[in-house]
Amino acid sequence: WERDSRAEPLPPLSLESQRPLPDFAVLAFSITYELDYFNVVQILRASGIPLYAADRDERHPLVQIDDGL
């Protein structure tokens, strides 16, 4: 599981199926702390999913974020 630190970072994968996130129709994030928004931005960027909905099309998953309540 150790990798060369100079190697290209792996894209984020789903926890259960180990599939790349762009393979899903919907990505849902539950945010309970304001600073968690930065983590969502990092995940989307690392997955190659545009941050803005206007920049996404039918090839990209729908991104849903709620406040966890």
UniProtKB/TrEMBL annotation:
Name all Radical SAM domain ranges.
4-63
Q: Which InterPro entries match?
A: Radical_SAM_N2
Report the protein name in the record.
Radical SAM domain-containing protein
